[in-house]
Amino acid sequence: MAHHIDRREFLAVAAAGMAMGLSRTSYGQAPFKHTLHKALIGKPTEGYLTKIKEAGFEGVEAPIAAPAEAEKGRAIAEKLGMRIHSVLRGWAKFNSPKPEEVEGSIKTTEKALLAAQAYGADDILLVPCRIGGKGLAMPQPWEFRIQFDEKTGHLTSVVEGDNSKYKDYIQAHDHATDTSKAAIERLIPIAEKAGVVIAVENVWNNLWVEPHLCANFVDSFQSKWVRAYFDIGNHVKYCPPEKWVKVLGKRIVRCHVKDFKLNDDGHGGKFVNIRDGSVNWPALRKALDDVGYAGWMTIEGSGKLSMEERSKRLDLILAGK
């Protein structure tokens, strides 16, 4: 669900840009068909929103809040000509063996949907569950060669050759897929009533680590209220992020902007400040434009950089540099 800023928002952003000595073309998006919008993660207080606006950001991804508090945040954002575009729901435990934890996760997600509605946000970020832990053998990121049943989303193999070593992982993955589907299907009517998309993200939770598998999971709901939240840095260790974008395509409703630097051998690595890692930003920007993405680019991390430096680096990314 792309958000197109209205005239009031546009003027506010343009004014902020001119105050910084920038023109509208400083965003460098002229060669691209689709304009992207700049955001950070944070609580939408007047002080915080004023500060990030001065640094050149247009909006924010906010935490879960009671509807009354979210409405106050929305009023502050609107007064400043900004936007609360998403709610950070985060981790859920839909695959927990404890029914009370599953129900608790569903209730928290309901609260996130209602908060998003009150904020005027378009979606919530949801990580359905995670698998892993001691004793569960899993392939290394570069070893994955996933095959799966398109009807069920169940894995048939995760590496080439003998998969017996990963039998427990495959079973845990299939269980997580089934329980996540069941929980999200319960939440779709609430999302529809609130007018808020459930944007599913995989965050090093060892699920849907291959783009076609992730796309299959989103498509399994056959609902416009379930889409994909794509975190650029999280996927570097599996394959180039632009490949994910090409496969997920219009399923992508939001993007987190992070960077990850691979080791010299291409295996493993660490998160780094944006533009200091292994992401091919020109290729990534072109891929987003090719699939028609015209939404928000929200920086996650890079907190050691000043807001102004983060804004400058994001401008370069939006310019395809």
Q: What series of H and E elements makes up the topology?
A: HEHEHEHEEEHEHEHEEEHEH
Largest beta sheet, briefly? 8 strands, parallel, barrel
Shape: globular
Unreliable segments of 5+ consecutive residues: 1-27
CATH class: Alpha Beta
Strand content: 15-25%
Helical proportion, percent range: 25-40%
Structure description:
With 321 residues, the protein is an alpha/beta fold. The chain has one domain: Divalent-metal-dependent TIM barrel enzymes (TIM Barrel). 38% of the residues lie in helices and 18% in strands. The chain contains nine helices and twelve strands. The protein has helices spanning 7-19, 46-54, 67-79, 99-119, 167-194, 211-219, 241-248, 281-290, 307-318; strands at 37-41, 59-63, 83-91, 123-127, 147-148, 155-157, 197-200, 226-231, 252-257, 259-262, 269-272, 296-299. The chain has an eight-stranded parallel beta barrel with strand order 1-2-3-4-7-8-9-12, surrounded by seven helices. α4 (99-119) links the parallel β3 (83-91) and β4. α3 (67-79) packs parallel to α4, α4 (99-119) runs parallel beside α5 (167-194) and α7 runs parallel beside α8 (281-290). The longest helix has 28 residues, at 167-194. The protein is globular and about 60 Å long. The two termini are 26 Å apart.
Keywords, separated by commas or semicolons:
single chain, alpha/beta, 8-stranded parallel β-barrel, 38% helix, disordered N terminus
